[in-house]
């Protein structure tokens, strides 16, 4: 390494000397470089992370679908009974009828297409009501003179006890319903059987 020399007289300088021994001038010192603040320091480069190893059998670029929230079967609301009710179709409404046949146990066959009064002697009451009179042949006299009201309107059948002595009953599927005496009329259907005392008639399509 070459010896340092004085910038004024070009004399050889002594190591670590602050003044030149020849000219007495102060030897300029090289200023130390201050440290660079960390916020201005150049960022350190890091090695890139290694890519994950491919899964055997997976197709490149394929994306596995993720189920949406509340879309899985066990996340659905409602009970199993609700699901079964939705799966079971609603019972079809009975078909509307315009004419019916009353098949009596005595062998009588009467076709009705409107309202009627049924009994042993119903003519006067039917005339006053402006409806048809259906006179029942009854040797046992268990049927009252005015025993039953029957209505067929808008394709629906309704029957009601007219205040008979022995009562009226509606039978459907082996079950018998007692009709209220002079009470509310109930809906009947084709295939039902209506009892008037000891006699009965079946409602059939006409």
Major beta sheet, strand line-up: 2-1-11-10-7-8
Calculate the terminal CA-CA distance, rounded to whole Å: 134 Å
Strand percent estimate: 25-35%
Indicate the mean pLDDT.
Answer: 81
Query: Which geometry do the CA atoms define?
Result: rod-shaped
- Count of extended strands: 11
Please describe the biggest sheet, giving its number of strands, its sense, and whether it closes into a barrel: 6 strands, antiparallel
Structural class: mainly beta
Helical stretch tally: 2
Q: Radius of gyration from the CA trace?
A: 56 Å
Low-confidence stretches: none
Return the string of H and E elements: HEEEHEEEEEEEE
Helicity range: under 10%
Q: What report would you give on this structure?
A:
This protein is mainly β and 206 residues long. Helices cover 7% and strands 25% of the residues. The chain contains 2 helices and 11 strands. The strands form 2 sheets. Strands 2-1-11-10-7-8 form a 6-stranded antiparallel β-sheet, with no helix packed on it. A 5-stranded mixed β-sheet has the order 4-3-5-6-9, with helices on one face.
For this entry, give a set of tags.
5-stranded mixed beta sheet, rod-shaped, 6-stranded antiparallel beta sheet, 2 helices, mainly beta, 206 residues
């Amino acid at each position: 390494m070459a010896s340092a020399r004085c910038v004024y007289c070009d004399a050889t300088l002594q190591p670590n000397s602050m003044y030149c021994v020849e000219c007495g001038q102060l030897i300029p010192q090289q200023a130390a470089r201050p440290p660079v603040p960390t916020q201005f320091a150049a960022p350190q480069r890091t090695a890139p992370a290694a890519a994950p190893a491919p899964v055997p059998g997976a197709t490149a670029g394929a994306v596995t679908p993720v189920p949406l929230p509340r879309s899985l079967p066990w996340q659905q609301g409602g009970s199993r009974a609700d699901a079964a009710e939705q799966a079971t179709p609603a019972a079809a409404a009975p078909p509307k009828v315009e004419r019916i046949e009353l098949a009596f146990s005595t062998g009588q066959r009467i076709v009705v297409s409107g309202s009627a009064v049924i009994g042993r002697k119903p003519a006067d009451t039917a005339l006053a009501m402006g409806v048809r009179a259906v006179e029942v042949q009854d040797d046992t006299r268990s049927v009252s003179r005015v025993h039953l009201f029957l209505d067929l309107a808008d394709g629906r059948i309704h029957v009601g006890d007219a205040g008979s002595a022995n009562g009226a009953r509606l039978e459907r599927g082996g079950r018998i319903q007692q009709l209220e005496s002079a009470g509310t009329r109930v809906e009947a259907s084709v295939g039902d059987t209506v009892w008037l005392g000891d006699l009965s008639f079946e409602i059939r399509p006409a």
